[in-house]
Amino acid sequence: MSTPIRTELLRVQGLRAGHGQLTAVREVSLTLARGDCVALVGANGAGKTTLLRCLAGVHPALAGQVRLAGQDITALPAHRRVQQGLALVPEGRRLWADMTVRENLAVALEHRDPVRAAAAAQPWSIERALDALPGLRPILDRPAGALSGGQRQAAAIARALMSNPEVLLLDEVSLGLSPRVVDEVYVSLQALRDQAGTTLLLVEQDLGRALRFADRVLCLREGRIVLQAACADTTREAVTHAYFGMETLQ
Fold this sequence. Notes:
Blueprint: E1 8-19, E2 22-33, E3 37-41, H1 48-56, E4 63-68, E5 71-72, H2 78-84, E6 86-89, H3 101-110, H4 114-119, H5 126-132, H6 149-161, E7 167-170, H7 179-196, E8 199-203, H8 207-213, E9 216-221, E10 224-230, H9 236-243
Parallel strand pairs: 3-8, 3-9, 6-7, 7-8
Antiparallel strand pairs: 1-2, 1-4, 4-5, 9-10
Helix pairs in contact: 3-6, 6-7
């Protein structure tokens, strides 16, 4: 039986970024194929959030290239990257607290690229997002500032979906959430994978959960990728060794 051909969707080459004199991302290269789910792990300060922010265009890169669906988007500002299909769910969710969930989604819907939406076989709508994230239905008209942590995370994911993303970047998926709520969030993410084939690059501190959920894992240490492997072909121990610097840099 032949292996299906996987279409490359995101290619990052030699990406470097910093904060003042501190280099936070060092010559990072990675690829995502359409439908991939890749977990990005590493200790605090490893450069995970800076990497995602660079990909989304909200933090400047010092060097390197980012290509989405074959197009060089390295020089595009954040809002243009969103329109091209690269959406970030940031740490802290950052919803408009005084607006309802419905209003948060509607604003995002208004600012997406109409050409890409018209060309999509099944563009995201508020109703489709509610089907994928059914926990949002009862709270659709509740102010975002009144939501629980898990509800805010689900609303932030739905807001990102309004842009019809080719790649969805999720920073610190389970940060500050109870284990039960984290389970609910991952049920929603699994639905996105199963129903829409959404391509995901997510930062997750829970290593066990990351290995169970993702197809591949990338371990970042001091701004460099020190391990990349299929989750099925690696172990928690191998990732832990890379995480804490107990192997040779690749």
